[in-house]
Automatic annotation (TrEMBL):
Organism: Exiguobacterium sp. (strain ATCC BAA-1283 / AT1b)
Full protein name: 4-diphosphocytidyl-2-C-methyl-D-erythritol kinase
Keyword Translocase listed: no
The enzyme's E.C. designation: 2.7.1.148
Taxonomic placement: Bacteria, Bacillati, Bacillota, Bacilli, Bacillales
Assigned protein family: Belongs to the GHMP kinase family. IspE subfamily.
HAMAP family listed in its UniProt record: IspE
Length: 293
């Protein structure tokens, strides 16, 4: 009898996200904060290789010192959720090539979970739509839904309610991460609602629709920035260096500590990269990824 040749391994990319805006609207009875954020993916990505196992285990392999390889890993949680929900008998091995800095405000863990959902959907022929996968993703973490779909979106609720919008015009993004890692929960705990600065989300969305690069730079805003700046003054130094080197728009992403600069021309992007390289341990020049998955 002939054997059916089924796919056993799949390779998936998990891009990082940046927040062009992040507005904290208030605290909810369930303990989460109500947010409104404009998020977009950039072409700095982890790579995951998923392989079907005959045994029923979920195995995570990663060389990264700060990335757990058990149920604390969001990719593990994604695999576990799909196995339970769809009664999958086989296990999966996830080899994680980590390129996105950890605990950085770039949603690396959430993107790994999202890539695991997309990858297992194909590997196990689950035939779920991206929207269905995004809904499942919300059970793992607030940013996972956006990472499932990618592109550019306004995220509301605790981050899981998405409205897709066109992508910003092509530009360079320089990312600079200081040596520290930041816990998102700690930053949200330190938020004082009466002191929150609210970005103008509508103006940002309009600038994006108009492909108005300078308007986008002008309306960058993050309610969490001043909170993280107080806890970690290093963030300010990176912002100032980027500005000093001529960046048009500069903002901290998510709960930080990564700061990004938007730049129209490649030469200037490299000037900023060189300006940061001396004292900032992790610096990347990337581009905005226009397309959704
Ligand atoms: P966000 O922007 O969504 O707040 P982040 O970029 O600040 O995310 P992550 O890199 O996702 O933060 O990691 C936060 C913590 O989650 C890490 O300290 C790590 O212990 C844990 N973690 C779980 N799974 C992963 C993963 N696949 N990759 C990296 N960290 C992970």
């Amino acid at each position: 009898m002939g054997r059916v040749n089924v796919m056993r391994t799949i390779s998936v990319k998990a891009p990082a996200k940046i927040n062009l805006t992040l507005d904290v609207l208030g605290k909810r009875p369930d303990g989460y904060h109500e947010v409104e954020m404009v998020m977009t993916t950039v072409d700095l990505a982890d790579r995951l290789e998923l392989t079907i196992l005959e045994s029923d285990e979920i195995r995570i392999q990663s060389e990264h010192a700060y990335v757990p390889n058990d149920h604390r890993n969001l990719a593990y949680r994604a695999a576990e959720l799909l196995r339970e929900r769809f009664n999958i008998q086989q296990g999966v091995e996830i080899v994680l090539d980590k390129q996105i800095p950890v605990a950085a405000g770039l949603a690396g863990g959430s993107s790994d979970a999202a890539a695991t959902l997309r990858g297992m959907n194909e590997l196990f022929s689950l035939n779920l739509s991206l929207e269905e996968l995004a809904e499942l993703g919300a059970e793992i973490g607030s940013d996972v839904s956006f990472c499932v779909i990618g592109g550019t979106a306004i995220a509301r609720g605790r981050g899981e309610q998405l409205e897709m919008i066109p992508s910003p015009p092509p530009c360079y993004v320089v990312l600079g991460k200081p040596k520290i890692g930041v816990s998102t929960a700690d930053v949200y705990r330190a938020v004082r609602m009466e002191e929150v600065h609210h970005p103008d989300t509508d103006a940002m969305v309009e600038a994006i629709r108009q492909k108005d690069f300078h308007g986008i730079c002008e309306h960058l805003g993050n309610s969490l920035e001043s909170v993280t700046l107080k806890l970690h003054p290093e963030v300010k130094q990176i912002k100032e260096t980027m500005r000093h080197c001529g960046a048009e728009g500069v903002l901290m992403s998510g709960s930080g500590p990564t700061v990004f600069a938007l730049i129209e021309h490649e030469q200037k992007a490299h000037r900023i990269y060189n300006g940061l390289k001396g004292f900032c341990p992790e610096v990347f020049v990337v581009r905005i990824l226009g397309k959704r998955h």
